[in-house]
Amino acid sequence: MSNTIQRIAILGATGSIGTSTLDVITRHPGDFELHTVTAHRDVAGMERICRAHHPARAVMADPDSAAALARRLQDLDGVEVASGDQCVAAAAADPAVDTVVAAIVGAAGLASCLAAVEAGKKVLLANKEALVVAGELVMATASRTGARILPVDSEHNGVFQCLPGRADAPHGHAGLAEAGVTRLILTASGGPFRERDPATFAQIRVDEACAHPTWRMGRKISVDSATMMNKGLEVIEACRFFQCQSDQVGVVIHPQSLVHALVQYRDGSTLAQLGAPDMRTPIAHALGWPGRLDSGVAHLDITRLGQLDFLPPDGRRFPCLELARDALEAGATATAALNGANEAAVEAFIGGSLRFDRIHAVIEQTLEHMDRRGDASLDDLVDCEQWARTHAADCIRQWGVA
Ligand SMILES: NC(=O)C1=CN([C@@H]2O[C@H](COP(=O)(O)OP(=O)(O)OC[C@H]3O[C@@H](n4cnc5c(N)ncnc54)[C@H](OP(=O)(O)O)[C@@H]3O)[C@@H](O)[C@H]2O)C=CC1
Ligand SMILES: CC(=O)[C@@H](O)[C@H](O)COP(=O)(O)O
Ligand SMILES: [Mn+2]
User: Fold this and answer.
1) 73: helix, coil or strand?
2) In this structure, what CATH number is given to the domain that contains residue 143?
3) Residue numbering of the annotated binding site for 1-deoxy-D-xylulose 5-phosphate
4) Sequence-separated (6 or more) residues with CB below 8 Å from residue 127
5) CB–CB of 209/229 below 8 Å?
6) Which among 10, 11, 16, 20 is the best mutation to test ligand 1's pocket, defined by most ligand atoms within 8 Å of the CB?
7) Which of 83, 176, 331, 397 could join 66 in a cystine, given CB atoms 3.0 to 4.6 angstroms apart?
């Protein structure tokens, strides 16, 4: 790819995006060196990664897990084990690292993502919640420090690929107005319940919600896909990343997940990005940008694709999408609260204390009670996110599972 080795930190290395990233970089030993891996509590997963890939540093956010990992790696030379959230953020800013893959799930990934951006790194952003909670701040920080953020989320990566690339532009692409773009369209699979009778949504089990029809992902994003909050978070992510308004970002249901995004231009052209539903493609694109890398993903055989469907989303079946758009209109504190309430509700559903069909109601209730503001500091946004978690937890306790 180039003659300088990129030294990589993978934040969230034990997860689905982390695993796909390890797969891609292992295919290019001359281009990438794995410097740092981080995880939360998955000691066995981290041990496997350390033995297979020999990073210089392994950080566990949970101190007890870090101690357990250090014990397990006593016989392995050259891996420094560190512990705690502050070490995760410090590892993201370490001068020994060039490229940070931000793949922690949820708002827990915000501090380390911001640390990487503040340090001017190349940041491969999978952690969409960082932009939902504090996107304006993250993007403004990148403009100030020269950090190059590349979108890994498949739809945003697809949009990025359909825009005129500008390696000299602050965010790597021409501005939408400058490029003649009128609309971005994100595709959504519709998740596992696209056709299920809504009268049965109260009985949905966690394993059913996590059985995504086209992608293999972590549990939180899988549940978000099942409620379509994932697409709501992605509309916010797109507005913050590409610096546009909610009405410039459309959503269409595309059950095959082969077209990831479309970009419409003022001359009537629509460009689309297609590929197999495999995150190694957007990860390889972002790792190699502005060049291209082998990802291990085979090309689509377009003679065998069969039918490609595109349908409007059903707002009554998936109220979370509209909740996210409303929060986006209401401003930065509302999107922070949306995220906090959603994370609390999804955790409760996964933990068995909230019904699937009440996830949206918890979020709606929380947003109705919040203080909405557009101009907010990082501390305000983090406080707002926390307030929403607490409020949502109160709703969940009151409503129970019955
Ligand atoms: N999976 C996918 O295909 C896609 C994912 N994304 C986004 O990428 C991000 C990661 O998703 P995914 O890989 O599916 O998630 P996973 O649940 O598979 O992995 C999450 C990773 O984050 C770590 N982690 C969890 N909580 C914390 C915490 N409190 N502090 C530090 N680390 C933590 C986990 O460590 P441990 O294993 O120890 O718990 C794990 O390494 C999400 O924001 C998601 O929305 C975007 C597009 C596609
Ligand atoms: C792979 C990826 O980018 C996910 O965000 C995916 O889009 C989830 O599928 P849904 O389209 O069902 O939300
Ligand atoms: Mn996506």
Assistant:
1) coil
2) 3.40.50.720
3) 128, 154-155, 189, 212, 225, 230-231, 234
4) 11, 12, 102, 103, 104, 105, 106, 109, 110, 113
5) no
6) 16
7) 83
Give the chain's domain count. 1
State yes or no: ipTM above 0.95.
yes
CA 224 to ligand 1: nearest atom: 45
Phi, psi (5° rounding) for residue 314?
-95, 105
Domain for residue 26, yes or no? yes
277: in domain: no
Contacts of 246 by beta carbon, 8 Å cutoff, 6+ apart: 235, 239, 325, 328, 329
Q: Consecutive 10-residue runs of the chain (402 residues): their mean pLDDT?
A: 85 99 98 98 98 98 98 97 98 98 98 98 98 98 98 98 89 90 98 98 98 98 98 98 97 98 98 98 98 97 95 97 97 97 98 98 96 85 97 93 72
- CA dist 63 and 161 (Å) reads 40
Give domain status of residue 58, yes or no: yes
**Domain, as residue range, for 27:** 6-151
- Name all residues whose Cβ lies below 6 A of ligand 1: 12-18, 39-42, 45, 61, 88, 103-105, 108, 126-129, 153-154, 215, 217-218, 220-221, 279
Residue 76 in tokens:
């392995």
Two tokens at 16? 């689905």
Binding site membership of 342 for ligand 2 (Cβ less than 6 Å): no
Amino acid at 101: V
Of ligand 1's atoms, which has the minimum distance to the CA of residue 40? 38
Give the mutation target among 155, 216, 346 for probing the ligand 2 site: most ligand atoms within 8 A of CB.
155
The 3-state DSSP class for residue 18 equals helix
Which one of the ligands is nearest to 189 CA? 2
In a domain, 177, yes or no: no
φ, ψ for residue 48 (rounded to 5)? -60, -45
Can you give the pTM of this predicted structure? 0.98
